[in-house]
Amino acid sequence: MKKLFQVGCIAATLFLFAACREDHSKQQHDQMQHDDQHAAVYQCPMKDEGDKTYDKPGTCPKCGMDLKKVE
Ligand SMILES: [Zn+2]
After folding, report:
1. pTM higher than 0.85
2. Which domain holds residue 54?
3. How far apart are CA 49 and CA 38, in angstroms?
4. Cα 34 to Cα 9: distance, rounded to the nearest angstrom
5. pLDDT digits over 9-53, tens only?
6. Do residue 31 and residue 59 come from a single domain?
7. Residues 47 and 60 placed together within one structural domain of the fold
8. 41 with 69: CB under 8 angstroms?
9. What was the pLDDT predicted at 35?
10. Rounded distance between C-alpha atoms, residue 1 and residue 23, angstroms
């Protein structure tokens, strides 16, 4: 009976450990996606606003051209 309890204990620990790891890796993944979006900068290809950049894709408010992603 005692051995069964120990096995159950180990199984529960492993389960919690796996659940914890999964949660952690998901958080890391979300963080990475967030960083990716944050790192992307968009700029008008005509540069009619100088070095002004945007953090989202879209169109230039001045000339209406699609903003280009700056690497
Ligand atoms: Zn423009």
Report:
1. no
2. 41-71
3. 21
4. 37
5. 667 766 666 776 666 656 666 655 555 555 789 999 999 999 999
6. no
7. yes
8. yes
9. 56
10. 33
34 CA to middle of ligand 1, Å?
A: 27
Do 3 and 18 fall into the same domain?
yes
- What is the count of structural domains for the chain? 2
**Residue 57 CA to ligand 1 centre (angstroms):** 13
pLDDT at 65: 97
Rounded distance from Cα 33 to ligand 1 centre (Å): 28
Same domain for 25 and 59, yes or no, is no
Q: 1 and 29: one domain?
A: yes
Distance in Å, CA 53 to ligand 1 centroid: 11
Element (DSSP H or E) covering residue 30 = helix 2-39
pLDDT of residue 56: 93
Quick one: CA torsion of 24, 30, 32, 34, rounded to 10 degrees?
Answer: -150
Q: Distance, CA 35 to ligand 1 centroid (Å)?
A: 26
